[in-house]
Amino acid sequence: MSILKTLFRDTFIYGLAMVMPKIVNLLLNGLYTDILETQEYSEIINFYVYAGFLNVILTYGMETAFFRFYNKSNKKKEVYTTALISLLVSLVFFSTIVYLFSDVFISLLGVSKSVLFMMLGLVAFDILVVIPFAYYRLMGQALKYFWIRVFTLVVMNACLNYFFLILVPKHQISLPTVFSFENKEDYVFLANFLANVTMLLLVFPNYFRYKWKFDIVIFNKMRRYGAPILIAGFAFLMVENLDKILLRDLLGKEIMGAYGACYKLGVFLMLFIQAFRMGIEPFFFSQASKSDAKQSYAIVLKFFVIFASLGVLTVLTFLDVFVSIIIKDKSYLKAIGIVPVILLGNWCLGVYQSLSVWYKVTDKTKFGMYFTIIGAVITIAVNYILIPSIGFMASAYATLIAYGGMMLLSYFYGRKYYKVPYQIESMLLYFIIALGLSFFTWYLYPNNYIIKGLAIMLYLGVVILKEKETVKEIIKQA
Q1: What is the pTM of this model?
Q2: Helix 293-317 × helix 319-326 angle, to 10°
Q3: N or C: which end of the chain has fewer CB within 10 A?
Q4: Residue ranges per domain, the chain?
Q5: CA atoms within 13 A on the CB side of 148
Q6: Between residues 473 and 53, which one has the greater pLDDT?
Q7: Within its chain, how far is the Cα of 151 from the centroid?
Q8: What's the rounded Cα separation, in Å, for the pair 396 and 399?
Q9: What are 162-204's pLDDT values in tens digits?
């Protein structure tokens, strides 16, 4: 039980480190939707879609490979420095290619030269902190991880956005030429870029933690382990972002902007999923060799389902409150109907990521690649087939079907290769209760906050009643 307590503690700290920047971004989303037209907002979506793809390509599964091999290797220093050097060299090589052929990339991505280099810089600084941050997580240095991310991605990013988007135009402040742009949305990218520069500076001493040594044998093992993760990550981003690109091409930037803004409402659940993943991934690998590992994994998934289902219930029950916070312009709300579907899709994604333990600890990462490719194919097919007939709702359904399919595939294949005694009946019960209460308040009592509060209390009451022994044990050890 102490393991579970440690997991909850780390997940809480990592959760704050992940949630606070995302909450700030959601609050800034209210600013963006207030001062930007839907077409301008679509450019922000484009930027981060492309940046996401670059991030996955240039990380090529090295973070997960680092977790795996650092835990099992007796040459930990070499694993650390080999991962650092590998990412640094590949990043320099790619940056050189982009610089030499910048005109090609500008034409391909449809961005200005300044935006292209900001995108490359933002991604580069993201990648350069991957291994130092992974080391913090592996060593249980959650507070250090927390303070660095909060200072840069919360304080700096928020202040810079406010400065560039509010104070500069209001007071007609003159900026240096290098920081002057015609398009308002470019200042969003600049703020993020400068925050990432600061984040790298704060973790930079980690580059000299050990004497640099590149071990080609370790690198080849990590590369082979990470290759399926790279392909899976790329395919996952297709599932996550291809809908927005297709909506832009098939229905226009206005629809894409509205869809992207309403899609953000699903981020409230994704915050928990990402935080849980940050705490759970080192835990998976640290427990792999223990005799009760499978029982621990089963408990972890059950509690994930409990809290993720609570997340779905909370967002749907108080959707009007969340909307008022992050969407200021009512013209964006034409796509509000996607929210329940996106939330269910994200719930499936969270379960899938927890189920992925079996192919990570057994070194069968190729299955993760297969599942995600299947998800990408489903996304493409459903979008192309249904967008012409039902519009942007097709993209929401594609997300749910893709993530739901990946979840089921991982579960059934996991039973064959690494059977974990998951408590399926209990998890389904919590999910069904949360879903039933969500739609009860959504359709019958959309404006009754007393009923909404009682619905959440009822769900929590069921959880406490069924899990009282586990809850008592956690409280006793807290």
Answers
A1: 0.71
A2: 80
A3: C
A4: 2-477
A5: 19
A6: 53
A7: 19
A8: 5
A9: 899 889 888 888 888 878 887 888 888 899 999 999 999 999 9
